[in-house]
Every structure is written in structure tokens, then in C-alpha cells.
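Quick one: structure for this chain?
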Amino acid sequence: MANAVEIRSVSSQMRLAGFVVTVSLLSLISIRPLAALTRLSGSSELYSHVMLVPLLSAYLIWIKRKELVATGRLSLGMEAGIGFIAGCIGAISYGLAARRFTLANDDYLFLAMSSFVSFVVAAGLFFGGRENAPVLLFPLCTLFLMVPFPSIVTHFITSCLQYGSAEVAYLLIKMTGTPIAREGLVFLLPGLSVTVAEECSGIRSTMVLFITSLVGGYMFLNKTSHRAALLISVLPIAIMRNGLRILTISWLTVHVDREIINGPVHKHGGPPFFVLSLIPLFCLLLWFRKRENRERDLAGKSDGGIKGPQAVTIP
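Got it. Here's what it folds into:
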């Protein structure tokens, strides 16, 4: 039994036009949540990236364009079907929740945009055809980076980063020999009290780090286990980065200048530490890539050393 419902053969131009028209209609239907998302991206640092996500998705498709099959059939395969069903579930859930509950802005956009993006992914896979589904699936699914987190998820991630950063910072400060006492998220140092607030969680830079690892793993790694490990490494790297930043600000304030805590190192020192966090991420990516190349070379040598059956001519 075929795993897709093949509709009919159409040209690549017609399929592209059908996708554009479908996305345009979906955008018109979802004009209110899209407008709200645009306003959110302009007012929230956490979601300032969302307007660039469609460009990222288009770029990932473009670099894989040589792997796309020029001719194919419209196909409602398993992936497109799942996307369509997910879109319907998201739309129904939003409709029911909006009638019964007063949703926070992020929760409202989570349901609305989850539905919208699911329909767009389903349309892309449908018009792309069954042959192109493996190539299109990941670039299209990156569109889910446009979907805001539910408020409960944002709070959970922020808390994990906040408390994890506090633990690391406390250990690092103790290692420097600086006298320190701790009361939960409050550090008491000589002449200084430091509170690890939610603003210290670095959730925005962690999100950028996550996107970097996601795209980097897709572009440069082949094994799913290596890509997953690269993504998982984002959390400990982010926590270590935050802890190092808290250590730097605290140590300089206590031992160098009391005004450091109110200066640019504290208020605008995030970008240098973000760049610093890219170093272990890229080192891990490079190590995985070298490991895959070595495994591929060994597999090639192994295949080359096996001789096939020889043909013998009997006179």
C-alpha cells in the first residue's frame, strides 16, 4: 500500500505557484495573529528573531536545491498529513480556549501560530511532492521557530537557567577565594550583594545559541545522535556562560572597582560572553564533524578492501 496519495503530475512552476497561493491565503486568514507576532517581535528581545525565520527556512531550501527533484507528483504523504492534522488540532484548540479562557498574549500566539505554521509545512510538503519530502522537511520545520513559547514554558526555561547559573557562579566565586555567603539566589560578598534575577538567565542569547546549534548541526553533521548531542550541549554551555559572567562582574566589583556593578560590563556585557559561548559549541561541532569524516574514511577503506566474486570462464 502506498504511503502517499499521489494526485497528478504538475510542473515545478505550477507547484511553486500553488504553494505561494496557499501560503498567501493562510496568511490572510491568520492576519490578526501574524500582526500580533510582528508587534511582539518588535517589543520583545526574546522574539526579535522571528521575522528572520522565513528567510532562514528559504535559505536552507536554497542550499539544498540541487537535491530537489525537478518533476514529481503532488502527494499527501505521512509528513504532510501529520502537518495538516496538527494544524487542525491547533486551530480547534485555539478556538475552544479563546471562548473559555482569557489567554496571555504568548499563549494565544502559541496556539494560533502553531496552527498556521503546521498548515504551511503541510502545504510545502504537499506541493513539494513525495520525492522531495526528505529534503524539505527540516527547512520547513524551522518555521516553528516563529512560534512563541507558552508562558509556562518560558517561565520554566528561565528558572532552569536562573538557578543553574546561580549554582555555577557560586562555585566559581568560591574557587577564586573570594569570601561569599549565599541565601538562595542572593550572594553576599564583601561590600556587595548580588541577586541572580530573571534578567540574568540569558534566555534570549540561549535561544540564539540553540538556533545556531540547530542550523549548524543540520548543515555540517549527518548523524542524528551528533545533532542531538550538539543541541543538548546548549543548556550547560548557556549556564556556564551566565555563571562566568556573574563571576566576572562580582570579582571585578569586589577587587577592582565598586562601580563595575553599575557600569557597561554589567549592563551591556552580554554580547562578548555570547561570543565566548560559541567557542565550545563550535569546538564540539568540529569534533563531531571530524569523527564523522574519520568513520566515513574507515568505511570507505573497508568497502574497498572487500573483493567481489570473480567471474571464471570455463573453456
